[in-house]
Each structure stands twice: as structure tokens, then as C-alpha cells.
Design brief:
single chain, 2 domains, mainly alpha, cell membrane, MetI-like_sf, MetI-like fold, 0% strand
Length: 278
């Protein structure tokens, strides 16, 4: 009995050590970026690199970054476009999921296959047609251009259809017998029970589009319409190598995502495991 207990403790201890090692590997770049943003360049470029500043902390990198780019406007562009995309994808995915999984409209399998097929097309393959469409509509350098191609998502539809296929149809049938319309069923029954999947989709969509770079780079032509991800690239200069300034910009861009992940870990796990726990 004692040997079994020792063996179990040893396995758990080994597992904890492996997890701690992986956590350090993942967390170290984030830590070094934060520290680099408040280090002097002499500490950053020293050999071997220092993980703690020898010459003290400095806020000059962050202050300089704030003055070089219209940080407030670019944060607003990033938050606004990302929130609109996230809300739209949740709405369209939920509606499509209800139609394909609950209502089972005619040709539901074909429609689902078509939506699934869009996931197999690389984003780079359609970025030029999207850009030409935006340009022909005269929407370049506008907020609409930032969000229009991403208002619906094949992945979001796939996720909601998969989730709603396991939905208890007894609740839907009972609501229909009571005379509830599809909109009433969707709002009062399906939506409350779909919150885990919707929360996971919202977090995934927010993180994905907050970190978007290529599309905003193409359609946002002025600093006032650019997102924070584009703005931090303006902190890099081929004539003046300043790694501390670049890290300060990266930290300002990554702070919202770190906060969201830290606050929403339970929702992420709950959404990813909701289907398997039914």
C-alpha cells in the first residue's frame, strides 16, 4: 500500500514538474517582453541577456511609444472593430446553428458542408478578392472596411452547429406545443443554454481578430484608422535600433488579451468541454 502511494505521489510530482517547465517556457517570452519595455537598451542587448535590469527600471520607452503613435485612437479602432466582429459572428453563427441543427432546414447537410468547406480555404487566398471588393465599393480607409469581410465565420457556424446537435430537443418540442415561435425558442431556450459555446466562440474570435495584422495593414491607410497592431510597427526604424521601444509597443498591444485570458479561463474550458459533458 505504501509503495503504491509513493508511486502515485512520484507520478504526480513528475507531472507537476513537467507542467511547471512548460508553463515557464510559455510565460518567459511574455515576462521578458514586459521587462524589456522598462529596461534600458544596454541591459537588453547585453551578452548574456539579463532577465532583470542592472541599470534600473525606466518608463521612457512606454512614454516615447505613447507620443510617437496615436495610441488612444488606435486602441479604439482595435476594440471597436474586434467587438463588432465578435458580436456579429456570435449572432450569425447562432442563427445558422439553429437553422441547421434545430430547425433542420431543407438541404441542411449541404449547407453545413459548404460552410465547412470555407474553413479549408486559406485566408491569404481570398484577401485579394476581398480587397478589390472593398476598393470597388469605395470603402478603403474606413471602419466598415476593417470589419466587413469577417462578420460571419465558417468556424463559428461549425462550432455552434456541432454544439446544438446535442441540444435536448424535448425542450424545443415542448416550447412548440406551447405555441412559441422560432424567435422565442431561440431567445428564451436555446441562447441561455448555449452560453458556454457562445462564450468560447467570443473569446476565440476576439483574440484572433485583436491580433489581426495583414487585413488592417491593407485597408487602413492613415494612422487615425490603423489598429494598435499596425501602430506598433511604426515604432521600428531601420536607422535607429531600439528594442526597448518595440517591446513597449508589444506590451501595450498584448495587455488586453492577457487580461481577457486571465479572466475568462473558466469560460474557455467550459465551452470546450460542454459538448463532452452532456
Amino acid at each position: 500500500m505504501n509503495n503504491n502511494r509513493v508511486s502515485t505521489l512520484a507520478k504526480r510530482g513528475f507531472g507537476v514538474l513537467v507542467l511547471l517547465l512548460l508553463a515557464c517556457i510559455v510565460a518567459f517570452p511574455v515576462y521578458y517582453s514586459f521587462m524589456g519595455s522598462v529596461m534600458k537598451n544596454t541591459d537588453i542587448v547585453s551578452s548574456p541577456p539579463r532577465i532583470w535590469p542592472e541599470h534600473g527600471l525606466t518608463w521612457s520607452n512606454i512614454v516615447t511609444a505613447v507620443h510617437l503613435i496615436p495610441l488612444g485612437r488606435q486602441y479604439l479602432n482595435s476594440f471597436g472593430s474586434t467587438l463588432v466582429i465578435t458580436a456579429s459572428q456570435i449572432l450569425t453563427s447562432l442563427l445558422a446553428g439553429y437553422a441547421l441543427a434545430i430547425m433542420k432546414v431543407r438541404g441542411a447537410k449541404i449547407w453545413f458542408a459548404l460552410f465547412l468547406g470555407t474553413m479549408m480555404i486559406p485566408g491569404e487566398a481570398i484577401i485579394i478578392p476581398n480587397y478589390l471588393t472593398i476598393a470597388s465599393l469605395g470603402l478603403r480607409n474606413s471602419f466598415i472596411a476593417l470589419v466587413l469581410p469577417y462578420l460571419a465565420s465558417g468556424f463559428g457556424i461549425f462550432m455552434m452547429v456541432t454544439f446544438l446537435r446535442q441540444f435536448p430537443m424535448e425542450l424545443v418540442e415542448a416550447a412548440r406545443l406551447d405555441g412559441c415561435s422560432h424567435l422565442r425558442i431561440l431567445w428564451s431556450i436555446v441562447l441561455p443554454l448555449s452560453r458556454p459555446a457562445a462564450a468560447s466562440l467570443a473569446i476565440y474570435t476576439f483574440l484572433t481578430h485583436w491580433n489581426g495584422f495583414l487585413w488592417p495593414l491593407l485597408v487602413a491607410e492613415t494612422p487615425q484608422m490603423q489598429t494598435i497592431q499596425i501602430g506598433i510597427t511604426q515604432l521600428q526604424s531601420p536607422d535607429d535600433f531600439n528594442p526597448g521601444l518595440t517591446m513597449a509597443g508589444a506590451v501595450m498591444a498584448v495587455v488586453p488579451t492577457v487580461i481577457i485570458v486571465a479572466l475568462c479561463q473558466r469560460q474557455i474550458v467550459r465551452g470546450l468541454t460542454a459538448g463532452s459533458s452532456r
